[in-house]
Amino acid sequence: MPAVSVHGLVRSYGSVRAVDGLSFEVEAGEVFALLGPNGAGKTSTIEILEGFRERDAGEVRVLGIDPGDRRSGRRLRSQLGVVLQELAVEPFLSVRQVLERNAGYYPAPRPVGEVIELIGLAEKADAKVKTLSGGQQRRLDVGLGIVGSPALLFLDEPTTGLDPAGRRTSWELVRRLAGEGTTVILTTHYMEEAETLADQVAIIASGKIVAQGPPASLGGRDQGAATIRFQLPAGVTPADLPVAIVGDGPSVELRTDRELEALYELTRWALEHEVRLTGLTVSRHTLEDVYLQLTGADPDRFQTDSAAGAPVRG
What we know:
Elements: E1 4-13, E2 16-26, E3 31-35, H1 42-50, E4 57-62, H2 73-77, E5 80-83, H3 95-103, H4 112-118, H5 134-146, E6 152-156, H6 164-179, E7 183-187, H7 191-197, E8 200-205, E9 208-213, E10 226-231, E11 251-256, H8 259-273, E12 281-283, H9 287-295
Parallel strand pairs: 3-7, 3-8, 5-6, 6-7
Antiparallel strand pairs: 1-2, 1-4, 8-9, 10-11, 10-12
Helix pairs in contact: 3-4
């Protein structure tokens, strides 16, 4: 049984259909990234899955439970971890106290000391929340999400405000959780994050899923033309090369849908003439390219949605 099953999900705000017939499934132990620009319906969808918002139509099952059934609410919440963009945490409690309090809400929580180590706050365990930096508070948010040993973890922009080192640490934590069998549903505006962590990505625009699949093949990015780039060797002109390139140096490129043949010709020529092809790379469309093509979104708008009167969570 999938950890999450959604079929024909609809949610409207007045005359605006923010979620328009969404269907997808998330397998147990999978990291599933839901991406979308402002107003796409992403947040409304997540809130329905969490049981925080009612749906107008469609079938939804989360860990086999209908999140819209209030009679099952407590049983579902005991199996969920939720990391919002901002959590209301008492500023005068210590990190340890906040985690111990939240651990008490769950039937089989993780040891608090283990959680503190996992989120990298061992040196701040007894520090008051108000003294933490923004990045440290974000780590605490993640700790609150995982302290209950959830079967399903919702991560809403989990690495916003973290420096590169903190972001990498968080990625390792998500990988560890998934390896232990935790299902993770992730929203993020970092395309590298989605590509690194997600087994499946769904891009949502105007309330509909416009593409879904593994990040490496989403939108056909594993097919079609590839771009080969390298530095033009000193003393070499474009006419000397066995392939047609664009640019006159120092960086040149060629686009081809037969990259293996082109690379063979290029590298064979380089070996025969004893020249180095510095900076040689082969690339196709990036995940960001696919995202922008499918949504027409400005990258600066790629944040949490607030669909037609649906409040942004905070």
